[in-house]
Structure formats: C-alpha cells, structure tokens
Design goal:
The complex is a heterotrimer of chains A (284), B (344) and C (328). Chain A is built from eleven helices and no strands. Chain A is mainly α and 284 residues long. Chain A folds into two domains: 43 residues; 230 residues, MetI-like fold (Orthogonal Bundle), CATH 1.10.3720. Chain C has 13 helices and two strands; from the N terminus they run αααββαααααααααα. In chain C, a hairpin with a 4-residue loop joins β1 and β2. The two termini of chain C are 46 Å apart. The chains are: A mainly alpha (284), B alpha/beta (344), C mainly alpha (328).
C-alpha cells in the first residue's frame, strides 16, 4: 500500500520537476533563438554601404542607414544628458538628504513616471515640445527618452548609495569634511560601479524605444544637423522598413535589428558584469 | 577618473559641435501622402543633387497626418490626396490667419491589387463587384459578379480577405470617392473620406503596409497606388469605367482621366477626377497635392519652396511617367505657375 | 548660536543670516538646493504630464462621458469614438500572454530557485534577464517574419483541426491577429515573471523547506505545497508587473495585431490595442475631438498601468518582508 502511494508521489515529483526544467529550457531557448536568428538574418546583409549611405527613395533598392545610426547616437546622447543628471542627483537627495514625507512623495512620483506607457510619453513630448516649437526635432525625441531614463537612474543611484555603509560617511565627517564633500569624495565613488552599471542598463533599455520617437523625432531621409530638425533613428527605421513590402527594406530592417540588438546586449552584459565582479551588497 | 573626464569632455564637445550645421543649409520638412511618396522622395533626392544647400525631408505618414501637421504648423509643407474640405481650410485659416494653397503635382491611380493563387494580373472588376467586396456583401472569389467579366479565369471558391488602410489616407479618399459615386449603397452605409468605418477587412499602415499585407495573405484584395502594385509584382486588376469598358490602370488611362480636368480645374485646384467621363479614362484616378502655406516668413525657405515648385512643374514632371504617375495637363501647369506667386 | 564665555569659538558673523552665509560658503546649502531641485523637478514634470493628459482629453471626456468606455464604434469620420474595441484587444491579448507566460514563468522560476545549482541558476537567470532587454521593435520584426509564418503553416492548422469547434478558434486566420499578439507578448513578459518570482522564492526561509522534507514530502510536494504558497503574494506581484508591462507594449503589438477596431469572438481574428491605435493614428488625428479621444485612451491606459504597478509593488514588498520576518 505504502509502496503504491510512494510510486505515485515519486512519479509526480519527477514529472513536475522535469516540467519546470522544460520551462526553463524553453525560455532560455527563446533568447538564443532570437539572438541566433537575428545574427543570421541581419549579419548576412550587413555591408559597408549600410553603414555609409543614406536611405534610397521609396521603392528603390540600395541605400543604407548611416543617418539613422548617427541619429540614434545623437538622440541617446541628449537623453543621457537630461535623464542621468536629474535622476542621479535626485537619487543623491533621496539617499543622503531627504526627509521622510518628501522622500516618499518623490519616490511615489518617480514610480508613477516609470509606469507611464512609452506611447503616452510620446504624446506628452509632442504636446509640450513639438507643438510649441513647431518642429519635429531631435531635441523633442531626446527629451522624451530622457524622461524615461529618470526613474531608473534615480532608483539605481539611490539603491547603491544606500548600500554604502554609514561608517564611511562618519569617518569622512570625523576628518572634518562637510556633508557635500563627503558625498562627492567618499560615498559616490564607493557606489560608482553600481551606479555606472545601472546607467548602462538604463541606456540600453532606452536605446530600443520606438514609440516615444514616432511623433517627436519623426524621421529623416538625410542628415540632421543641429537639434531642431527631425532625425532618423534605428528603431523607427526598423519599424518603417519592416511593415513595408520591399524585400530590400526587409533586409535592411534585419541588419539594423542586428546592430541594435548587439549594442543593447553588449551594454547589458558589460553592465551586469561590472556589478557582479566584486561589489554586490544585495542581501540574499 | 581622468579617463572618464576626458571621455565626457569629448562627448560634450561632440554635442556642442553637432549643434551647428556644417554648411548653411536650408532644411525644409514635409509630411503627408504615401500615394506619391515614390515620386516625391525621388524628386527631393534629385533636387538636392542640383541644390546641395537645400534639403527637403519628406515623411510619408499618410494624407491625414499631412493635413494635421501642416495645420498644426509642425512641418513646412504637407502633401495630401485627400481633398481639403471647406471646414479644413477654415480650420487652417483660423489657426494661422492666412490660408493654405493646394498645388497638384501628379495624377495617379488607386488600383485593386489581389493575391489569388494561380490568378495573374489583369482581372476585370465591375464597379458593382468592388462595392460588394468592400461592403462585405460579395465574399467569395467565385461570385458571379466576378466570374462573369472574367471568362477563362479560374476563380477559387475561397473567402475574400479585404485589406484596407488603417491610417487617414488619400488613397482611401480616392477609393471611397469612386465607390460612393457608383454605389448608392456604399454612399449611404459608409461614405467617402480619408478614414472610414470599414464594414470588413484588415487594416494596414500606408500604401506600403497594404501591399505588404496583400503579398502575405492568400485570397486577399486591397487598394494601393499603381506603382506599389507594379514595383512589388503584385497582380492588379482592371476597373470598369462609366462607359462600360474595363480599363487597365496605366499612364494613358490616367492621363485620359486627368485631361478632362484641364478644362474644369477651379482656381484653388480642388477637383475630383474619379469616375471621369471619357471612353479610355481609368475611373479611380486622382490628383495629389502639395499643401503650401500662403505665407512663409522664412525668406530662404520661401525662396526654395517656390523654386522647387517651378522645378517640379518643369523638370520634375519628366520623372513622373517612368514611375507610372501621369504628368499634369499643360493647362494645369500654366495655371499653377501663375499661382506660385500667391506664396509670399 | 550663543557663544559660551571662556570657550574658544571660531570667529563668524552671528545670527541666522550669518549662519546662512557661512553654510553657503561651505557649499552645503547649494548642494542641498541642487539635489532638492532635481528631486522636485521630477514631481513637477510628472504633475505636468498628468495635467496635460487630463486637459487635452477634456473635450472627449465631456463629450462622451462614461459611454466612451463601453461604446464599440470607432469612426473618426463620423466623430464617433468608443474605447471598447481597444480595451478589449488590450485586455484579451494581455490575458492570453499571461495564460502562456505564467505557467512557463513560474515553472522556470521554481526550477531556478529550487532545483538548479546556484551557479547554473545565476547564469540562466542572467540569460533570461537579457530577454527583457530585447527592444520591442525587434520582437515585432521576429513576430512578422518568423512567428506568423510558423503559426500560419503549422500551429493554427493543428489548433483548428483539434479545437476548431471552439468559438475562440473559429474563423479564418490571416497571420495578424490577437492570437499572434498574445504569443509575442508572452515571450516579452516571461522574463519579468521569472526574475521576480525567483527572487521571492529564494526569500522563503530554508526552515520551511526543510520542515516539509523532514515530514516526508517529496521535493515537489515541499515546493508546491509549502514554498510556493508562502511566496504566493510575491508571485502574484510579479504577474501584475508583467501584466502592466504587457498592457503598455506598443511596437511589437502594432506590428502583429492586425489594426482592426472590431470586437470578435475568435482569437484568430485581427484586433487593436490602445497603445497601437495611438501609435497609428495620433500623427493624423485631424480635429480636436479626434485628438482628445486618443489622448483619453492614453489616460485610460495610464490609469490601468498605474493601478497594476502599485498593486504589484505592494504585493512584492509584502512577500519579501514576510520572508525576512519569518526567518527570525
């Protein structure tokens, strides 16, 4: 009697545990499939002209995405210049200065901002900037993406600053440093690795965002000098080309996808290895 | 730490440097119809080769977007095959205190494009058939309305998959304008516009999106500008015109439809040439317009836009036919040359 | 600050103005001011965002009232705007995504937390978190060119031959559909479920597991009947998080859902989601009513994701605190 029950339970045990393994294989497999497919499809159409030429007129084969690659870099640079300082300094405030209620309000608001769907951020940037300046612009796109970067910049800064032990702060103050000098010379450098890693992850996430750029940066067939003109970006080009009927555009969409994904993954892997190699104060 | 400073210094320098354009360039932005986007993008590339200090950036977002963005003033010019209504013109005037001008550029055709396994290009469609298909009342390919004009073509007993535009489109405007003219049923149930309440079908974005969707879906039918069907080798059909003949959409038949308009073209160039009279006229033809503000305060932009318009009416027209767009009739060109002076 | 007789004090100007100037010179007040300004700017910008959304949707809100949420007609030409088709598409595609992602995700989380050796677990979790980093537009790319052909050729015919009698699998399949959107969303949200569930499972104190094993439970029984129920709230939190993510997804969905504002029983039919319709139609919404209707849709989406995110946070916090508390 006991043996029979035991067998049934043993069988359930084996089956269920194996299923969980299968689930994991499935999920990890999905990642490798996506990577591999993109590598294969995108890699084979990567050519020098892709990196150096401007897009060809609608319907004509050839051309490249030189302006979109530079455009993405430009918009992301602006986004970083906006999102990182504000998020970082606000994180410093929450970790080092904040009073209980005001910090709560700031954190709550930041979480609210983080939860805004990216398309809604696009609407906001459109009504706030594009309509007022009468221009689709790299600036509007950069500001929309910068806004998306703020919550994560803030959270990762605060988290890693808090992890710095108080003894270091007190040591510095005992030597006569005032508060801001302590923070700048002792606390921040101690948390630097984690903060940089967080910023890199942030950048990688925002690099792939398309929706906020649709009605802010728009798109451009040519180079886009300055900050006040529409600008081509990789995600928007991928979207435009993917839904078109031209096989040549499809090939270019794959190549662009390959480049975008490679960059995002390289930054992600680098960022995570910065943190895991050495400084990790997360309690387990 | 020093390395970090150096790199961030470089970044800031690059940031500052890129704020100043390399040479004094006039950058003009426009958005609008996908219908003429092959010829417009070609024109702008060619014009840029001739005038390297002027850059026209055109984004084919759809006629609806073209109208909206020019009205909001976020672009320097718009493009639309949707005829601006009196309300829309008034809307523009209220916002800007001056008007917007419509300049026809080329004429094109909206063609019924389909993907039926085994059926080649050149299927004949009666006006009734098209209305029925898009209303959803005719839903099988071997319906008598479709088989009768096509003896010798084996049409399958399969469901018709309708593909239409999901965005505000001049191609839709032209298509529904035609359907409203030939089908009182369509006119009452759906009507005419850039974006309608489609009784059946899948939505796709842009002429490019519709061609893509038709390409990928068996037994489907959509409507796109002629060049999209041709360039992508998707079969397209002939449509019966008001004289009863099945007309192939091509240069000659579109030109025939546009020719009639030469005499009746109003001063503001707003005219519909669907179901045009004439034995050889293709019935689903339409002009497409550039939307230019009456007043352009920026001197350089004003000069360049007017110069482009002149170029478009002369050298530009010669590029239209290789892309299967019909040239403007001579009388219309003359009228437009005079109208350019209105932009100040 | 009162000076005390006989005790040496640094020479500084007296009074509040004096100490303010002193602090200014030492930089602490400036530093405080700067960081405070940054923190406040976030509040200001977010408030501005909510305000803009609210004001710009006013026309639609007053015009349609509550009916906006239950009308199923979306006819820009006629000026009739109803949100129901988009709410339906958003909810159904997300629900389908959860249906697929939750068992997959929780199963994988259990494996990673309970069974896998720590280093393998870390490595695999690392790989899975990379999935979360893949941009939405690339999921859309793979959705159009890889997933949909596979569905058309293999999966849907099999589905239809076995379960085709069910209304949810009835009707023709054109590739773009709520079904395709649901599957793409599932792959996009499963990393979130795995990542958070794994964390909460790891937070469950060892004693509980060991106690179950001590009374003779198998590994599975210990996991499923003791550990998982303990971490249940946190797992629900991860599901809410994933759902909030799925609701707001724009690009991948708009590329595979079919962009048809119609409510149909079959999952194989095309549909439309809130984020997708805003992405497609915002640039061309002529007329203030049309624009404000789209913005009202944005507001609805925003409200949904806020509520879900808040609930998720509370649930996850509750579980990890519970775990930390119980291990005392």
């Amino acid at each position: 009697m006991t043996d029979h029950l035991s067998f049934q339970r043993k069988a359930t045990n084996a089956v269920m545990l194996i299923s969980t393994g299968v689930c994991t294989v499935f999920t990890v497999g999905a990642l490798f499939f996506i990577l591999g497919y993109l590598l294969f499809q995108g890699g084979k159409d990567l050519s020098w002209s892709f990196f150096t030429q401007l897009p060809a007129p609608v319907g004509e084969p050839g051309g490249g995405m030189a302006n979109a690659i530079v455009g993405s870099a430009k918009v992301l640079l602006l986004a970083t210049c906006i999102g990182v300082p504000i998020g970082f300094l606000a994180g410093v405030y929450l970790s080092e200065y904040g009073g209980a209620t005001y910090s709560f309000i700031v954190r709550f608001t930041t979480d609210l901002l983080n939860g805004v769907p990216s398309i809604v951020i696009g609407i906001f940037a459109f009504t706030l900037i594009v309509l007022r300046t009468h221009h689709f612009s790299a600036m509007a796109g950069g500001m929309a993406l910068g806004l998306m970067m703020i919550p994560i910049a803030l959270r990762s800064t605060e988290e890693f600053l808090r992890a710095v032990p108080n003894s270091m702060r007190e040591g510095a103050m005992a030597l006569g440093a005032n508060k801001w000098v302590t923070i700048v010379t002792v606390v921040i450098p101690a948390a630097m690795r984690g903060i940089v890693s967080g910023m890199m992850l942030n950048l990688a996430r925002v690099a792939g965002e398309t929706a906020p750029l649709l009605f802010t940066a728009l798109n451009n067939q040519f180079w886009s000098p300055g900050w006040n003109q529409p600008i081509a970006t990789l995600p928007v080009m991928i979207f435009t080309y993917a839904i078109s009927p031209y096989p040549d555009w499809h090939r270019q969409a794959w190549a662009a996808g390959f480049i975008l994904l490679s960059l995002v993954l390289v930054v992600n892997i680098t960022a995570r290895s910065i943190v895991s190699s050495g400084f990790s104060n997360k309690p387990r | 730490m020093n390395k970090l400073l150096f790199i961030s210094g470089l970044a800031v320098a690059a940031l500052a440097g890129s704020a100043f354009p390399a040479t004094a360039q006039t950058l003009i932005n426009g958005a609008g119809a996908t219908f003429p986007s092959p010829i417009y993008t070609k024109w702008f590339v060619e014009y840029h080769k001739l005038h390297s200090d002027v850059q026209f950036n055109y984004q084919p977002l759809g006629s609806g977007a073209g109208i909206k963005q020019i009205t909001e003033g976020t672009v320097d010019f718009g493009a639309s095959d949707i005829l601006l209504s009196d309300d829309q013109l008034k809307d523009y005037e209220n916002k800007h205190h001056f008007g917007v001008l419509m300049f026809p550029t080329v004429a094109g055709a909206a063609v019924p494009t389909y993907n039926i396994p085994g059926v080649k290009t050149g299927l004949n469609f009666t006006a009734k058939a098209l209305a029925g298909i898009f209303l959803g009342t005719i839903n099988k390919w071997n319906d008598p309305e479709l088989t009768k004009p096509n003896p010798g073509v084996k049409l399958p007993n399969a469901d018709i998959v309708v593909v239409h535009r999901s965005d505000g489109s001049g191609t839709t405007f032209c298509w529904t304008d035609f359907l409203s003219k030939i089908s009182p049923d369509w006119k009452s149930k759906v009507g005419n516009g850039g974006s309608v309440n489609w009784p059946v079908g899948l939505g796709a974005k842009g002429s490019a999106g519709v061609s893509g969707q038709v390409q990928q879906t068996a037994n489907s039918i959509g409507y796109v500008e002629l060049i999209f069907a041709e360039k992508n080798n998707i079969p397209y059909g002939n449509v019966q015109n008001s004289s009863g003949a099945f007309i192939k959409p091509e240069l000659s038949s579109i030109t025939a439809a546009a020719a009639g308009a030469a005499k009746t073209m109003p001063a503001d160039f707003r005219i519909s040439i669907t179901n045009a009279p004439g034995k050889t006229a293709y019935p689903v033809s339409t002009f497409t317009w550039l939307l230019i503000p009456e007043q352009i305060p920026d001197g350089a932009k004003q000069r360049d836009i007017k110069d482009f318009l002149h170029w478009m009416l002369t050298s530009g027209q010669d590029m239209a036919e290789p892309l299967t767009y019909a040239k403007l009739p001579k009388e219309v060109v003359a009228k437009e040359e005079k109208a350019i002076a209105k932009v100040h | 600050m009162a000076t005390q007789a006989g005790i040496a004090q640094p020479i500084r100007p007296g009074g509040r103005v004096g100490s303010f100037i002193h602090n200014l010179k030492t930089g602490d007040d400036i530093a405080y001011g700067v960081v405070w300004l940054c923190a406040t700017s976030i509040i200001v910008v977010t408030a501005l965002l909510v305000l803009e959304l609210w004001i710009n949707s006013a026309q639609a809100r007053t015009h349609f009232g509550f009916d906006f949420l239950i009308t199923s007609i979306w006819d820009p030409m006629a000026g009739k705007f109803g949100a129901l088709p988009f709410i339906y598409g958003t909810v159904v595609s997300s629900a389908l995504a959860l249906l697929i992602a939750v068992p997959l995700g929780v199963g994988a989380a259990i494996f990673l937390a309970e069974l896998a050796p720590p280093r393998l677990s870390d490595l695999l979790t690392f790989c899975i978190e990379l999935l979360a980093a893949v941009p939405s537009v690339i999921y859309g790319l793979i959705g159009i060119f890889v997933l949909i052909p596979i569905l058309e050729k293999a999966v849907v015919p099999a589905l239809k031959s076995s379960l085709g009698f069910l209304p949810v699998f009835s009707g023709p399949f054109y590739g773009v559909s709520i079904f395709s959107a649901g599957i793409v969303l599932a792959v996009m949200i499963v990393p979130f479920i795995i990542s958070v569930s794994r964390e909460v499972l790891l937070a469950v104190p060892r004693d509980l597991r060991e106690a179950a094993l001590a009374v003779g439970a198998t590994k599975w029984e210990s996991t499923w009947q003791v550990v998982v129920p303990f971490a249940r709230t946190g797992i629900f939190g991860s599901i809410f998080l994933a759902l909030a993510r799925a609701l707001g997804e724009t690009m991948a969905v708009t590329m595979v859902i079919g962009n048809t504002p119609r409510i149909q029983a079959s999952l194989l039919a095309p549909g439309y989601s809130i984020a997708a319709v805003i992405a497609n139609e915002f640039a061309e919404a002529t007329g203030d009513l049309y624009t404000s209707a789209l913005i009202e849709l944005g507001l609805v989406l925003f409200a949904l994701t806020i509520v879900l995110n808040a609930a998720a946070q509370l649930l996850i916090m509750a579980t990890t605190a519970k775990g930390a508390g119980a291990s005392r």
